[in-house]
């Protein structure tokens, strides 16, 4: 493992699953929008954590990510959903059925509205999923959550922010439930000083804490 600059320790073992989605003109704005959708498999002390399940039919990619971590479906202990939108829960049934012993979690306000093959446990601020701390980051949806690994400064931000061409950006307003809450959530996660931000939409950026602070201080 490569060492992280800043002394927080070795990088967290993570594999991403990336798929492209096309949003037709008129849905998120006047123009067609092409974006990637990312979900993650994370090695943890008691087994693998899957963060979001991506679009429908993403389970094959998730399987490959799990295998790249040296595991199989039986090693998946937890499935954490950052929020209820279809591009984040689209393969939940397939993933949950292939990992039958994994607990499923989502933010409290979102959890009742997520269709799943078994119970989705509501989870909130300060809870831990193995070594990952849950942060309540509402605004994109009422129950949106992010996950933070303090030991490596790694933040899984869901749709609280995105990236494009090396910059951190806000998500489309058309998909946001409360813009004021969303901005408060951004300020809150910027205060963590993350050394690595893993987005649901967009690749990692250099100096992520600075890039996030620059975006917050810039125009909306």
Q: What's the end-to-end separation, in Å? A: 38 Å
Which strand order does the major sheet show?
1-2-3-4-5-6
Q: Which bin fits the share of residues in helices?
A: 10-25%
**Cα shape:** globular
Determine the number of helices (DSSP H or I, runs of at least 4 residues).
5
Radius of gyration: 16 Å
Regions with pLDDT < 50 over 5+ consecutive residues? Answer: 1-6
Percentage of residues in strands? 25-35%
Based on DSSP secondary structure assignment, what is the total number of beta strands?
13
Quick check: average pLDDT? Answer: 90
- Helix-strand string: EEEHEHHEEEEEEEEHEH
Major sheet details = 6 strands, mixed
Going by helix content, strand content and strand pairing, the class is: alpha/beta
